[in-house]
Amino acid sequence: MKKLFAVLFAGALLASCGGSSYTTDKEEALEMKKSQTEDMKSYYESALEIETNFYASQKEILADFGGKESTLMNKAKTKDEKALGALADLRNLELGKRRDMDALSRKYEDSHRALSQSIRDINQLNDSKDLKEWSKAIEAEEKIQSDLADKHYKAVDKLRKD
Questions:
Q1: Number of alpha carbons in the 13 Å side-chain half-sphere of residue 141
Q2: How many CB atoms within 10 Å of residue 79?
């Protein structure tokens, strides 16, 4: 039991630190998949915070231009200093959001890539009859992850509309 706990802890630690953790052990891969689901909860919380801050700042920048980027661009075409400054602020905000989202994605990328490879290899190394229950458990985690993603994108769409 202590050995199993140590392996699971090490896998969780590697996954949460962004390190890769390849395995061909079905149970270890399933535990990693569950850990990945937990990581995704944190990922989407952080991503939503980035999006929320972005849209709040964007709204503030565009406030003097009727809340519309097209109005800002039309005003900037006339070389209006305030509009040009707001346009620069808006573009820097967009670049900052992209940088923050990329950094957040990189944090999880290696462990997710290693787990995906592990799952592919486990599927090839085992007979389908030996994978029946395991595949169902992996699919259940993928469903949870898909639901998390859907919930996140709906929240982001709501931010865009507000």
A1: 21
A2: 8
118-153 pLDDT, tens digit each: 999 999 999 989 999 999 999 999 999 999 999 999
| Residue in the structure block whose two tokens are 């346009």 | 87
CA dihedral sign, ordered 135, 140, 143, 148: negative
Q: What is the distance between the alpha carbons of residues 93 and 83, in angstroms, rounded to a whole number?
A: 15
Structure tokens at 137: 């458990």
3-state secondary structure of 68: coil
Name every residue whose Cβ is closer than 8 Å to that of residue 39 and which is 6 or more positions away in sequence.
Answer: 15, 16, 108, 111
Does the reported pTM lie above 0.70?
A: yes
pLDDT score of 13 = 40
- For CA atoms 7, 9, 14, 18, the dihedral sign is positive
Contact 115, 36 (CB under 8 A): yes
Mean of the per-residue pLDDT values for the chain?
88
